């Protein structure tokens, strides 16, 4: 397995992108975004995850983060994806969702080829991780994270998007505490 885009070191920061299978826009619903926020909060408190930047888009999540206290980032991401997959499917089944049958069918077909017994597959395999190596790279990735909703014309200003750390950096009400970096 290639390690080009994997978190292979401990205690180092990474820019990570996690994407749903087929780029399905799962996170258009508030309840689904709340699952992600709650899971990230849990990872912060229980799995040594330090988050410096994040954005929950409709089909993917961007994080600038690192694992601490002896935790390994690849293990944290594996557990995060496993937990959120189950919660996302449970929410689709139990709460109002106009695309319920279509989404469940898509997630079911996405795991049909797997050797391991699995009913639904929400996330693409692995995750895209880029090792943070300079302040310039941090600034570039934070700008990318915060401007993602602007680029997609969801909001006009980065800090207007409620599920992004752009709000933290603008000292606005937010859903998830992050460690603020001095971005210059």
Automatic annotation (TrEMBL):
Q: Which residues form the Transposase IS200-like domain?
A: 10-148
Ranges annotated as spanning the membrane: none
Q: Gene3D superfamilies this protein is in?
A: Transposase IS200-like
Q: Which domain of life is it from?
A: Bacteria
Q: Which Pfam families match?
A: Y1_Tnp (PF01797)
Q: Which InterPro entries match?
A: RAYT_transposase, Transposase_17, Transposase_17_sf
Annotated NCBIfam families: REP_Tyr_transpos (NF047646)
Indicate what this protein is called per its UniProt record: Transposase
Source species: Flavobacterium fructosi
